[in-house]
Amino acid sequence: MPGFWINMGPQHPMTHGLWNMKVQVDGETITDARPEIGYLHRGYEKIMEVREFQKNVVLTDRLCYVSSITWSHAYCLAVEKMMGIEVPVRGQWIRVVSLELQRIASHLMWLASYGPDLGFLTGLLWALRERELFLDLIQLMSGARMNQNYPRVGGVRNDLPENFAAMCQRSIEHFLLKMEEYEKVFHDSKVFHMRTEGVGLLSAADAINWGVTGPNLRACGVNVDLRRLDPYETYEEVDFEPQVWHDGGAGDSYARFVVRFNELRESCKIVLQALEKMPKAGAYRAKPPRRAEGEGYAKTEDSRGEALFYVIGDGDDRPYRVKIRSPVFSTMAATPLILRGNKLADVVAILGSVDVCVGEMDK
Amino acid sequence: MSAPLIPNLFDVCKVLTGAIVWVVQQIIYAVAVLIPPLRGLGDWLGSDPVITILTWLIAVTVIVVWATLVNLLTMMWVERKLYSRLQDRYGIMISIWSLPFWPFNRVRRPTHRGTGYLQNVADGVKLLQKENITPRNADAAMFHISPVLIASSTLMIFAALPWSSGFYVANLPLGILFILAAFSLAPLGILIAGWSANNKYTLVGGLRAAAMLMAYEIPMILAVIALVFFTGSLDPIEIVRQQDRVLFALGPIGIPAWYAFTPQFLGFLVFSVAMMAEMERIPFDIPEAEAELVEGWTTEYSGMRFGLVFGFKWLRMIAGAALIAILYLGGWSGPVFATLDVGGIPVPILPEEVWFLLKIYLISAVFVWISWSVPRVRIDQILNIGWKRLIPYSLLAILVAAGFRVLG
Predict the structure, then answer these.
(1) What is the pLDDT along chain A (363 residues), one digit of tens a residue?
(2) Distance, in angstroms, between B290 CA and closest chain A CA?
(3) Per-domain residue ranges for chain A?
(4) Would you say A235 and A93 are in contact if contact means Cβ atoms under 8 Å apart?
């Protein structure tokens, strides 16, 4: 049946958001795939042109609803570069803490959805249980579980609450214990290795050519982490190891899993270090000008790859033009390449390991 | 080493039927005073063939109603509660406390703090109220036949499956063969359902079921063949009777001569794994892989048809666990310590039916435990497991069994 197209979406129960993966199958083997995106297109770049710089943070929060702070932060960084203002040191450290907490929450959401993708529903509930720890921390810090509206142009909205370092310490200690449980249930599972190893291969050259970034690129063995290569905020003062897959068999689902999984630990390390190294008091926000002219661009290491914001101001109090570069959008272009030759049962498993967020993909 | 609660289901039912028929007969005779020809009807009703037929009907009803309603509900409840606790949540909670007309203890026990036993009843009632949708381009006749085929073939298993040495409908000399044959009818229904619904997801699911069938049916039957070398019989009651003795004594504890503790251990493992595939439990539930195939071959079913094809999975689970218990784990024979010695006569503490159900639920709990802690395998991997692992192992089990048989 070479001409047999199956729609995986848009109403498929296991698509992570509203999009459609059309796969052509021959028996059980995938011969071709075509992603159809745009179901969630909200015209972000245009809407942002009619809102003031500061108010756009509300929008960028909703670009990716499981990783709000990282996206708002990328936008704020671009606007700050355009305006030429400097964030106070304590503000930068608070941003690092919030970014890494958000990264952990986002990766746990990915881990949670990766379980049912492989038919392992227990993983969903376990990972969501630990995600609550970090959502609680984020809520303490910013006041909201999702769509926090926390980073501001010039800093962050509010200072850290009292005793925040101790609370982080406690949650992370508990979380690291639970990570061992995850390792037992994922790494030590023979069936999990069967489902992920050698599946969904992506070579490093292909990944670079198609613009795949972030953990997916590092899983191919390419050491690219913008927190190291092009440090923003105070990342150069933090001691951490970018997670890269070195053990051969690069670019399969298992490598992507391990890279993301280990990033959870690295992020915990960064949070603890940042809380220790940050100045204990001081300003956390600089006052931005209301109007600005010029252009600024910032690229950050988002939970899913390289997030890029390019903002032009024409002297008004709102941007003249905003360009968003979404990592998932580029990764999605490479998915037919990853999927071809695999089995139908692996479509969801591979796309789950790639970590799709439709909000940022469709903008 | 224990006795059944009901020495012979047929005899018990015959007494019951006789009593009912006697009452009806007396009424008819009373009426026959006015209408004399009715007296012949009363005599006919009391004749032995009629009572025998009525007894069969009642016996079958007892087995089927007991098996379907009570054990099906309990098994669903056990599974849903058990995997909820594995996932660190309470699970289903609707129970008799939640009923709107339940007058007692409403304050102390709010509606959502029950044990959850009635949740499956509520789900069933909900499914009964739903519309039965037939897809426009479906092959309607086949689409409607398939749930019937699956449900009836599953119930057929229980016709030959004894619940104790006295509690059974039919004691077939080839009972195990009949049960295995009835088991393997359902994938045919799955294939029909997948094809007739005219949906790509169901089609893939149905064809997967057909491809899987070969991979696990053959090792399962080969494992049973290895067992037959030892038992020399396919009669479940005879097989259990052979296991009802002490293999050797380990201090004060006598190890029973269950076939899982003999050289049949390999066959036991193969049979259990294959049975897991037969039950469509999670590592092997690829015809219904909800990750990629929406709901697999059941996608297009709605209402109580979906309830039938979905709920009968648990009946098959009961039957599969019962089969494992009968063949390898001593069936309804209880452990030795559970027998009291009263003046030289062994008196069982628990009747056979209770032991049997305990074993069934224990085996099922292990299956639930396994299936909610591993991901699902792929179709090519289950074919590999079946053809490259299970079949050689089951052949090895046959070799071992034959060797032990020859050497004594």
Answers:
(1) 557 888 887 888 777 778 888 888 887 888 888 888 888 888 888 888 888 888 888 888 888 888 889 999 999 999 998 888 988 989 999 999 999 999 999 999 999 988 888 888 888 899 998 999 999 999 999 888 888 889 888 888 888 888 898 999 999 999 999 898 888 888 888 888 888 888 888 888 888 898 888 888 888 888 888 888 888 888 888 888 888 887 776 788 888 888 999 999 999 989 999 888 888 888 888 888 888 888 888 989 888 888 899 999 888 888 898 999 888 888 888 888 888 888 888 888 888 888 888 888 888
(2) 8
(3) 4-362
(4) no
Among partner residues B286, B377, B379, which is closest to A191 by beta-carbon distance? B377
Domain boundaries of chain B, sorted by first residue: 92-129, 138-407
Best of A125, A187, A254, A346 to disrupt the B interface by mutation (most B CBs within 10 Å)? Answer: A125
User: pTM value?
Assistant: 0.85
Does domain A4-362 match CATH 3.90.550.10?
A: no
CA distances from A204 to A64, A216, A249 (A): 26, 10, 11
Report which residue type is found at A28. Answer: E
In the structure encoding, which two tokens stand for residue B374, read together?
A: 């591993």
DSSP H or E stretch at residue B227 = helix B200-231
Amino acid letter at B95?
S
Q: In angstroms, rounded to a whole number, what is the distance separating the alpha carbons of residues B330 and B338?
A: 14
Name the residue among A96, A274, A66, A258 with its Cα closest to residue A179: A258
Residue A151: strand pairing partners: A156
Identify the H or E element spanning B347: strand B345-348
Size of interface A-B (CB pairs under 8 A): 86
Residues of B in contact with A4 (CB under 8 A): 200
Cα B117 to chain center, whole Å? 19
